[in-house]
């Protein structure tokens, strides 16, 4: 039986940050991960360049049943603190868009920073070990892995969500929570592409690879203004990934395909100078031509010259394009999702230390908790913030 002060399950973003902090406090810390490398999700994130934080991160960028929980967490260790850390390590990075910071070279640079911090803090990292079970003892916990048994005073669960099972996602964190009677809120794939019903899929799959700047609105009124991307399975792109966190099965989303143009006004103007022009050509000059052809072929928009359109038809057409309604069939699920919505209820945890209110010495940080960020570096920031806060206490 290996004895340590702190055992961390998961050598991901949250686990490594927490381990280094606890190590700096003089705690003996071991991190266990079933993968053959630490930080595997960091390595594939942001197209291999890791969008490691967002300059504008604030509680509004997160979904959580208790916004104060996120506020408390982010305020203790902010994006500026993480930027200060990477600056100290000399990381080369750049601002891409909307406050998103990416590595210039490779996501490996972020993993290297975390590993250096862990090394300086005297942390032991054990890879290729799957955590199988946890038991409470009088002085802490016994953790059984595929290779060994550990006894620890503090147990930190940083085992992530269910996304990307190929990269070692397991439900162990939720199981441990349930074992100790902590509520786990229903989980769902989020930041994930939509699949379409067969009819729409067949119509639009030829557009695969085409993106359109749009505003996408969910039924709860949440909106994102970014690109949508047609894929051979359905719809993706940043605006779709964002809205997927707010979409529920059976609901529709509204897509404003021309957010910068008053389409009805534009047609009225063009009618005066160029009335013979076909509607198809007018629309084809502001939207992908192939898309318009599909809509005309399907009878969604009339195949007429613009001077043949009645006022009502113009209004209907503008409404159609500004509020294009799509009812997804579903999502691509955990296989391609970036994050898992739901997880350990924040009401069960201290927002200061991430310790379970009812179980002394048991902590949950990162994606295994119910906090889910938007796309754009927010999820890593939450991993750093929760990992740091827990590392001061565990
Ligand atoms: P994480 O999942 O990183 O780590 C958990 C670890 O626990 C894993 O290493 C796993 O192997 C281990 N584990 C699980 N069960 C175990 C068991 N039973 N025994 C032992 N080990 C076990 N976010 C962002 O902010 N910017 C971005 O650019 C991206 N990009 C991105 C791309 C893709 C493709 C994905 C899938 C996700 C992103 N994300 C992102 C989201 C981000 O990766 C995610 O929010 C964090 O990695 C969560 O960090 P955690 O440390 O909580 O879990």
Automatic annotation (TrEMBL):
Superkingdom per UniProt: Bacteria
Keyword Kinase: no
Pfam families assigned: HI0933_like, HI0933_like_1st
Cofactors, names only: FAD
Domain RsdA/BaiN/AoA(So)-like insert: 189-339
Residue span, RsdA/BaiN/AoA(So)-like Rossmann fold-like domain: 5-392
Keywords assigned: FAD, Flavoprotein
InterPro entries per the UniProt record, alphabetical: BaiN-like, BaiN-like_dom_sf, FAD/NAD-bd_sf, RsdA/BaiN/AoA(So)-like_dom, RsdA/BaiN/AoA(So)_Rossmann
NCBIfam families registered for this protein in UniProt: aminoacetone oxidase family FAD-binding enzyme
This protein's name: Membrane protein
Organism: Pseudoalteromonas piratica
Origin organism lineage: Bacteria, Pseudomonadati, Pseudomonadota, Gammaproteobacteria, Alteromonadales
